[in-house]
Amino acid sequence: MTPNLTITSLNINGVANKTRRSKCIKLLKEINSDIFFLQETHIESCPEWNGESFHSFLSSKSCGVSIFFKPGLDCLVEDVLRSDDGRICAVDIVFSNCKIRLISVYAPTSRGDRVFFFSNTLPDFLSADRPNILAGDMNCVSSVELDAKNRNADSLSLIGSRELDSLVENFDLVDSFRIENPTLYDYTWYNGDSTRASRIDRFYLPPSFKARIKSSFFPFSDHKAVHCQLFLPDVDPSTLPGKSFWKFNNECLKSDFFKEKVKNLIDDCRTIREGFTSTGEWWDEIKRRIKIISTKHCSYVKKERNKRENMITTLLESETDPVSISQLKSELRELKEQQFKALHIRSRALKELKDEKCSAYFFGRIQGRRKTNKIKSVKNPETGIIYNDNPSMLTIFKNFYSELYKEHCGNTSIQEELLGSITSKLKNDHSPHPAQDLLKQDLIKKTLTLMANNKTPGPDGITVEFYKCFFNDISDIMVDIFTEIFQHGVLPPSMSKAVTVLIPKEGDNNNPSNYRPITLLNTDYKLLTKHINMNYFKNVMPAIISNVQLCTVPGRSIHDGNIFIRDTISYIRNKKLSAILMSLDQQKAFDMVNRHFLLKTMKAMNVHTDIIKFIFTIYSKTETCLEVNGHLSETISLERGVRQGCPLSAALYTIYIQSCISCLFKSKKYKGISLPNNQRAVCTAYADDLLFFCDSVADVETIFSFFDKMYLGTGGKLNKTKTKLLPIGDQTITSEYETNELKVCGVLFSNSKYNNQVNINTVDITSKVEKKLKRYTNIPCSMRGKILIINTVIFPILFYLAPTFLPNQEFFRQFKTLIFSFLYGEGRREIFKREIIELEKEKGGLGLTDINNKCRAFFLYHNVIQPSCDSFEHPRIALHKFFFSFWCRDIYPSMYKTSEPHCFKIIRPYQQVRESLNMIKNYHDTLKISPVSMNQIYQWLRGDKDDAIVKILRKLNHCKELPGRLFDTWRDSVLPVPLIDFMWRLAFEGLKTGEYIKKLKIPKATLTCAFCDECQIETTVHLFSECKTLFPHRTSVLKIISKLNLYETHNIQGNEIVLLFCTGVLQSPTQRYDKRKLFKIVATLNKAVWDSRNAIRFNSSTATAELKKLDAIIKNLHSDNNKNNRDTEVDGE
Prior knowledge:
Distance between the termini: 80 Å
Structural class: alpha+beta
Strand content: 5-15%
Mean pLDDT: 83
Number of helices: 38
Strand order of the largest sheet: 3-4-2-1-15-14
Number of strands: 30
Radius of gyration: 34 Å
Largest sheet: 6 strands, mixed
């Protein structure tokens, strides 16, 4: 088998010297290789090489990487990318019809720089759209045991390997040598006497690329040349991803020129309105024209951006002035950010990191998400043959869903029996005239503002953001279209179309039924249906849906069902009874809704005829295309089902299943479980998650029989393989459906004590959290960025459990250890007090949620506040009164009645309620406030914890008079996040000064001040306030501050300059703008001092050189301030 391509990677140890370069080039030409990846070249061009060559250059003494192409090599170079530090050169090529990105890398030798390089710099150069070939000198090993000679297990050569491993995993690359040689010792670098060696030169390739790796000695280097014989895979065009459908780029909305063009287009289209038979068809033509001008605008912007990037790159190669270079690099970063935002339209990866920059992990996540959602193969149900090409997979899915969505008429007599059981009906006064009362511009605009941004649009490609931007220009058109739909019962052509994406479920993904179809609908359709849902269905649902159904009904929560199950289990065990909990799974529940029966159900509930007609309109003659790996199928007619993705689908399904629940309530054969005060537990339902309370096996058989009957009537079918039976109390059953643990709406239940049920849930949660934290561990973001991840991604997992099961204090202790280990890094010492981290941002903290008290707040709200409301009607109130009315009679005396049964022995969950209530000061009076919100309870539980900041500042003795409101200036700042983060650390003694290092007891560590010889142990106060060497610089900055007129007669002394940014209270404040300037000046100086200190300590710089840099920075501050003052004066004139 002949290799397609041979690539050699070599650290060449510098070829700036012409004689040395000539000799090395001569040796390279003797190597039988097509492409060379060279590191430490120290050159920006190579005239001695006859073929094409591309270089990333820093200086003639350090760094530099190059890619050389063999003369005559038949490949097309499409693009070249270079890093500013001379460590990365990437070239996009097309070779043998295969698009590839080549990346030559020289990683830093400095440990800290290496970690940053792999986590934050290198990933920007890897492609998410084509295979990557990454090779070079990584300056770290993957395994000390296999890749290093005479190295200890704690060797510094491992530093950076974790970040590199995470990077290649995100981009789906493998160490080709180690794949072929899992246990072989081989080294590519040797020290002078060969006592130390390591394999730091490596190739990383896609798994589908087969390669043979070998190495050979090169005379002019202490590194071996690593040769990769590459066998490119044969690419079948039918397996390549498609482009899906066009989607509007929201970045266009930032262009005033584009917005003006759209407004003019809408005005021009008004003149052609009479040429269309309906407003809907006219609106479709407007959308078609919007797509055309949007595409042209994006093409123009992309062309101009690329032109500017190339121009900046050219200027950087010849520019020598440091200030100009800095400005050019800053502009280049801004252009990259624009590219990042454009890509964000096509992927919502890292949605939780709203301030995430154009970094490594964004592109890696996009590729990772594509891998997750890519359908690799599917089995033909008829033949059993598995196919992996897109056309065949599209055909299989199309046939499957065409059959699934065929209409099922059903037995009309069974339908009439189900409809006859409905007792909850609307009165005429609950049914306003929708078209007249609802379709108003102000109401529609309110609905639009509540629609979430960053959602994938429908087949017309127009996003929610577009509608919000231009609603004032099209509001009358929207009202006319919606009114037309109600009056004439016809949808605009584009509204009846959709695209269905298939999301794989757990299990066999070769089975076409094991996918969840999510329908992408046009934004105008979703605006209309969401508007009707919010302004009609939300108002009538409580009147027509029984209290055991919890989905889409205002005032009801998914937690009500879980608490009901918890208390029912406790009641059965407490009374020594027996029962069975039966969890049902309906096969393709939303997709198998019988639409005719749905309309009959709505009519039986006295839903307004205009609304019934509207539902008939939006679900008649609907069709969709299936999307598989970016390819679209032919259209499929949808004759049944409610579309998952439609804002009305959950409400419609809840209405649809109501007759089933009503019929079971009336059934004489089905007993359910008897509860106190003559109440009965029958079922709890959240959309298609149904759980039935069975008195015995006879009840189980009754439910099975009932759903068999329902299938004949409506087509709804049980997936019996997923049915679960949990025996409770003394109940024993012998069934294939029996289970020891039952998961209902994400919460686990068992036939055991409360504490045991808490434990099985917390073990499950801990496992989930550890997996998620591992996913985010190597994301290069500040502590505030990690806190954002914790608050928005990690903690909600526990918040969901908290209303039902409140974990114990030992769990919270271990959980916090896990969280803070993620914040600081595994095994690293915590720098700040946890009280500061958990303090609200407005009060100077970082806003990490107090997880313990937040969970208690959830628990109290759902177990005390909510069931005590007069409007609360869920059947769990019977058990709440039984278990807790006696124990809460001091708070809610009206709930406790001696005539009703109650339990004198408090059970564990309500014991936790009492314990939590005792944590609230004067809770007897506090809880009488109405209404009480969950956030109010959270604040009451925290008590005086927010005063911790005052105590800490007094202890640090930073200022004599403490401000009443902290960090005002910090919150108003527009400075970069890293600079704000640095100042926060400085204010709270979080910098690793000599004083901090002394506490760590690191042997032979330097503790003295880097600038002067007087301070033996460097402290924050000394470095930023008292160091005599830096006194002239502080004096110069104070002169700048004095010109801001923020103080009447006040001399800033000592360490107060350190805390100016955090106190936020100035003795004579004037403009907020001046306060921001003050923060910028102080922060810039302090950060510059710290950077200079680190350069002296770790980068072999001198105090003299760094002081000159500080002089230059202060000079720029003076210049900027004087310029701003002149601008202010001009504005004033």
